[in-house]
Specification:
Elements: E1 5-6, H1 11-20, E2 23-24, E3 28-29, H2 32-42, E4 43-44, H3 48-57, H4 60-65, E5 88-94, E6 105-111, E7 117-122, H5 128-143, E8 148-150, H6 156-169
Parallel strand pairs: 1-4, 5-8
Antiparallel strand pairs: 2-3, 5-6, 6-7
Helix pairs in contact: 2-3, 5-6
Length: about 170
Amino acid sequence: MEGRIYVSNNKKIREKILKENYNLVDVGHLGQHRMLELLKKMYWWPGLKEDVKKYIQRCFKCQQNKVQHQRKAGELHPLEIPQGPWQEISIDIIGPLPKSNGMDAIVVIVDQFTKMIRLKATTTNISLERIAKIYRDNIWKLHGVPKKILSDREPQFTLKFIKEFTKALGTK
């Protein structure tokens, strides 16, 4: 607790702290565990963990994006087959790899219908803006905008990717 601010038993103050540290512009909806870790760096009060849990449970977006951990071990959940090519894609980054021409990673974009793969050499510290430009220059011009994007990154990745993609297109 040393170096942290003790917050008194004042609901309004605690609620304000929760609200101000919740939907951060640069990271979006944090989720229960990440928000708790963030708050614990600066604040402490009895029941902080429970207050964060209740706050997150009131957020529709967080509940919608919540990762379900209740699956049985070894249980497979196949993806639905898309209606046509390039309607559903997956995006991933493979790396770090041994450096070649200054690149140490690969952006992998896969069409879930045809299983066609597009690869683009990059670096492990690639920005979402750069991924969006790779998509614009190598996929969008040929296949358009997908209806669904799959990624093993946090749920906010897709939303941030779409924002960067529309910015790369010059859309407002």
